[in-house]
Specification:
It contains eight helices and 18 strands. It is an alpha/beta fold. It has two domains: 194 residues, FAD/NAD(P)-binding domain; 108 residues, FAD/NAD(P)-binding domain. The strands form five sheets. Strands 1, 2, 5, 6, 7, 8 and 18 form a seven-stranded mixed β-sheet that branches. Helix 1 crosses helix 8. The longest helix is centred in the last third of the chain and has 20 residues. The N and C termini lie far apart (50 Å).
């Protein structure tokens, strides 16, 4: 794309992660004209940007995108880079048309086609599959601006390893899985405090053979097939997950204690340039890492697809109010596993089937009454 005019495709997939590549696999099999675009400069870029010590919770035998399993000989639980390499190899294996370094800034409609606005160009399409997720904007509390400028602070999305930190104490704000992992990463070289409520933890060691090969099969079955929007249990779980943080999976509270990490209450403000805890304590630290998640942001989609509450209106990723617009990889799109690897392939296949159904309906000859 060189700024000389619009390119046109039958379908554009936004995002070349596991969701976008899964959709691309099914589009390829159907013989569609499509392109997958991704803002990163390399396939798997969103994985490579995460902290160095990251390992997946999903065992390697369960990391299966359509048509090709993850190479199981590499690790019981893939590392960040192994997962990124798998995605890159997957796109190459199936010759998927991926363009990296393409940042979609806006999706709108002109006439009967969708327009994807880029920095200097545009792409037109009959169908768009958004597979980039909705969590684009790191969330940091407003009072972070009041911290002493000498304190190093960063969001977890910018954290890679302890070499980024100053000498002195580290406050990790947010006691979810990323916060627990990063705390353990930092405590080897820095006094570390982990701030936030205890949301519970998975009671088994997920790295054992039994957990990987027996317990995870049960968990995966429930996450994919039982906790869905079609079941009362699934709808109840969706409401609970939306309002609470996830429980710890790999790291257990005893691991944090054994490592010398001090659990402290929620961080609620700043006093004299230092963070203040809910119990009134002021911590004298040199670093703050905000493991506070992301804002759910789809404001770049300039289409009337949101309800009065601002939530995207869709049915299993199909936006009925905007025919031709689809999503894959959303939180609880259909099941508790929809935004993680075990659930993505099914949702991608479903969405592409609905896309093909739409085209078949549009191309079917009209019946003329006698």
């Amino acid at each position: 794309m060189d700024g000389k005019g619009s390119e046109r495709f039958d379908t554009v997939v936004v995002g070349a992660g596991q969701a976008g590549l899964s959709a691309g696999y099914h589009l390829k099999r159907a013989g569609r004209s499509f392109v997958i675009v991704d803002a990163n400069d390399r396939i798997g870029g969103s994985w490579r940007k995460r902290y160095d010590s990251l390992r997946l919770f999903t065992p390697s035998w369960a990391v299966n995108l359509p048509g090709w399993r993850f190479p199981r000989k590499t690790a019981h639980h893939p590392t960040r880079d192994q997962m990124a390499d798998y995605l890159e190899a997957y796109a190459d294996r199936f010759d998927l048309p991926v363009r990296t370094g393409v940042d979609v800034q806006r999706i709108s409609r002109e006439g009967g086609r969708y327009v994807l606005s880029l920095a200097d160009d545009r792409i037109e399409a009959d169908h768009v599959i958004v597979a980039s997720g909705a969590d684009r904007d790191p969330r940091v509390p407003m009072f972070s601006r009041e911290l002493d400028p000498a304190i190093v602070q960063m969001h977890s999305s910018a954290y890679r390893n302890p070499s980024q930190l100053r000498d002195g104490g580290v406050l990790v704000v947010g006691a979810g899985n990323s916060g627990a992992d990063i705390s353990l990463d930092a405590v080897g070289s820095h006094p570390t405090w982990l701030s936030g409520p205890d949301r519970g933890h998975v009671p088994v060691n997920i790295d054992t053979w039994v957990a990987r090969n027996v317990a995870f099969r049960v968990i995966r079955f429930f996450g994919v097939h039982v906790l869905t929007l079609r079941t009362p249990m699934g709808r109840k779980a969706r409401a609970k997950y939306a309002s609470q943080g996830d429980m710890l999976v790999r790291v257990k509270p005893k691991h944090l204690v054994a490592a010398g990490i001090e659990r402290v209450p929620k961080t609620v403000g700043v006093s004299g340039g230092r963070p203040v805890l809910e119990d009134g304590r002021v911590l004298d630290i040199a670093n703050v890492i905000w493991c506070t998640g992301f804002r759910h942001d789809l404001s770049w989609i300039d289409l009337p697809v949101f309800g009065e509450d601002g939530e995207l209106q869709h049915e299993r990723g199909v936006v009925t109010s905007e025919p031709g617009l689809y999503f894959v990889g959303l939180f609880f799109q259909y099941s508790a596993a929809s935004n993680v690897i075990p659930g993505v392939p099914r949702d991608a296949e479903y969405v592409v089937e609905r896309l093909l159904d739409r085209d078949r309906t549009r191309s079917a000859p009209e019946t003329v009454a006698a």
